UniProtKB/TrEMBL annotation:
Residues 1-77 form the 2Fe-2S ferredoxin-type domain. CDD domains: fer2 (cd00207). Keywords: Iron, Metal-binding, Oxidoreductase. It comes from Mycolicibacterium nivoides. It holds the Pfam family Fer2_2. InterPro entries: 2Fe-2S-bd, 2Fe-2S-bd_dom_sf, 2Fe-2S_ferredoxin-like_sf, 2Fe-2S_ferredoxin-type, 2Fe2S_fd_BS, Aldehyde_Oxdr_Iron-Sulfur, Beta-grasp_dom_sf. This is (2Fe-2S)-binding protein.
Length: 170
């Protein structure tokens, strides 16, 4: 199948098998290897990317389904040599150890901050009575919103702190 898509603001026209995942297309065909293949079952979050601004698990997304759409990977988050605030916060707070999950954590955190800013509720904040304001970005709120991203090294405390720093709520 022939597809066209935008990846990190660059247009690509690619021929792909209809069974190929977005993750495999990114890594094997477009050579964007920052997105990692962790479990390949949608359980770990290492493959998280943005699809039209929303976070998705690229190992569960068929490449054929993204034709005409925009994908952002970890390689597209920084503006040239200037790191995005979430990337800088991960460095400042040492929010990674082995680094394998970091690209998925950063992509998920950036999308999560956008979800929070627009007032999307999570399981943690669902019961709040005033839905006209975004819920407080507490450590529990961050942990709930990031629950789909696993860090085998256990850097969760630093990840939460980095996200709070990037959100401006510290």
């Amino acid at each position: 199948m022939d597809i066209e898509l935008w990846v990190n603001s660059r247009s690509y026209a690619v021929r792909t098998d209809v069974r190929r995942t977005l993750l495999d297309l990114l890594r094997e065909r477009l050579h964007l290897t920052g997105t990692k293949k962790g479990c390949d079952h949608g359980l770990c979050g290492a493959c998280t990317v943005h699809l039209d601004g929303e976070r998705v698990l690229s190992c569960l997304t068929l490449a054929a389904s993204v034709s005409g759409r925009s994908v952002q990977t970890i390689e597209g988050i920084a503006a040239g040599d200037d790191l995005a605030p979430i990337q800088q916060a991960f460095i400042d707070r040492d929010a990674f150890q082995c680094g394998y999950c970091t690209s998925g954590q950063i992509c998920s955190a950036q999308a999560m901050l956008a979800e929070h800013a627009r007032g999307d509720l999570s399981a943690e904040s669902f019961e709040q009575t005033d839905v006209s304001v975004a819920p407080d970005l507490t450590s529990r709120e961050i942990r709930e919103r990031m629950a789909g991203n696993i860090c085998r090294c256990g850097a969760y405390a630093n990840i939460v702190t980095a996200i709070r720093d990037a959100s401006g709520e510290r």
